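Lab manual, section 2.4: Encoding a predicted structure.

Procedure: take the sequence of the chain (162 residues), apply the prediction step described in section 2.3, and record the output as structure tokens. A sample record is shown.
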Amino acid sequence: MQPHARRALEGWHTAWTAQQDAALVAFAAAFPGLGRMDPPTGCCDPRMKVERPGEASGFVCFDDHGRATVDFSGIPQSTLGETLEVIFGRGWFDEGPDGIGAAPPGTYNWDDDATYAEFEIKVEVDATASICMSYVTVDDAMVLLDELQTHLVGRTGGPEES
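Recorded output:
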């Protein structure tokens, strides 16, 4: 490779790494407790995990295409329902017309044909739920993480992170 092309590629790699790091900093700001995983992560190397018993456990990652995945479980169903209602409104899933907070146990899916994002919600019999949002923008992941944090803090009455 020609020296000027090599330098340009190195500059691109430096900028891309900075963008990935900035996404992880933003995710941690929106949802305290997320911590960076050391490679190999089993997925995208820019990956964070969280374990907040009674609130949420799972991971957030940032792929090589600049898309994020949020995969959390153990969320109180009512809290996830409130979160999704604020973001999307009710009836987002045909199978749950009164919202996820009132949905019976089961799996609820939605695919966004415009962005190729995939959403899967699982409601468990113990009134917990999981969410997996795949291939979403950093903005969309941030909205979910921040709104979920807001509703979890509201549920526990604890101090909100600043």
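Check your result against the sample. DSSP finds three helices and seven strands in the chain.
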